[in-house]
Design goal:
Radius of gyration of chain B: 13 Å
Number of strands of chain B: 11
Largest interface: A-B, 32 and 25 residues
Number of helices of chain A: 0
Helix content of chain B: under 10%
Largest sheet of chain B: 6 strands, mixed
Structural class of chain B: mainly beta
Shape of chain A: globular
Oligomer: heterodimer
Distance between the termini of chain B: 38 Å
Helix content of chain A: under 10%
Number of strands of chain A: 11
Radius of gyration of chain A: 13 Å
Distance between the termini of chain A: 37 Å
Chain lengths: 113, 112
């Protein structure tokens, strides 16, 4: 079974721009969660989508948004980029039911200049 | 306010010996706990998990112990190998919510 894939792997943007990141989950998984990893804050939960609906949301500003498609693929969008948005963005997929193990993709390294 | 804490930022162990990584949590509603291994600039790799109804789970060289009364879990790696050198994250979740709460990680170095 193919793992979680994320594109692009690396991205450089400037302040004020917006960016879209993509995540393809493991086949059969209906839940996709997004996380931000920074040296100072560690791994922090952004949001989770299950069956095309946002099911959970972390404490991030509204500039961070996402969506999920009918094939469970998910996208994350960050608008009006700030320097502090530079981070490794990780997505994880799971079945979304029961005591559930999340499997992570390789991440997208976003650098905001 | 950290709900999941890994109080040791680093741990150094000799090859062949046991590595013990510790994790404490504060939320008594957590019912599923996981350990991930991570290399820089890569995604976390799932190692082992345990539900709150168990106190031990083994998978090869990896064993996770859960002490609910102390709100403490630990990961034992026996025997430790140089390839185990990485950052280990403890994570917890409540129910089937897709919201994992992570500790800050412990960097394990296994010396030959």
């Amino acid at each position: 079974k193919a793992g979680v894939t994320q594109t692009p792997r690396y991205l450089i943007k400037t302040r004020g721009q917006q960016v879209t990141l993509s995540c393809s989950p493991i086949s059969g998984h209906r839940s996709v969660s997004w996380y931000q990893q920074t040296p100072g804050q560690g791994l922090q939960f952004l949001f989770e989508y299950f069956s095309e609906t946002q099911r959970n949301k972390g404490n991030f500003p509204g500039r961070f948004s996402g969506r999920q498609f009918s094939n469970s693929r998910s996208e994350m969008n960050v608008s009006t980029l700030e320097l502090g948005d530079s981070a490794l963005y990780l997505c994880a997929s799971s079945t979304g039911q029961g005591l559930d193990t999340q499997y992570f993709g390789p991440g997208t390294r976003l650098t905001v200049l | 306010d950290q709900q999941v804490k890994q109080n040791s930022p680093s741990l150094s162990v000799q090859e062949g010996r046991i590595s013990i990584l510790n994790c404490d949590y504060t939320n008594s509603m957590f019912d599923y706990f996981l350990w991930y291994k991570k290399y820089p600039a890569e995604g976390p790799t799932f190692l082992i998990s345990i539900s709150s109804i168990k106190d031990k789970n083994e998978d090869g060289r990896f064993t996770v112990f859960l002490n609910k009364s102390a709100k403490h879990l630990s990961l034992h790696i026996v025997p430790s190998q140089p390839g185990d050198s990485a950052v280990y994250f403890c994570a917890a979740s409540e129910g089937s919510q897709g919201n994992l709460i992570f500790g800050k990680g412990t960097k394990l170095s296994v010396k030959p």
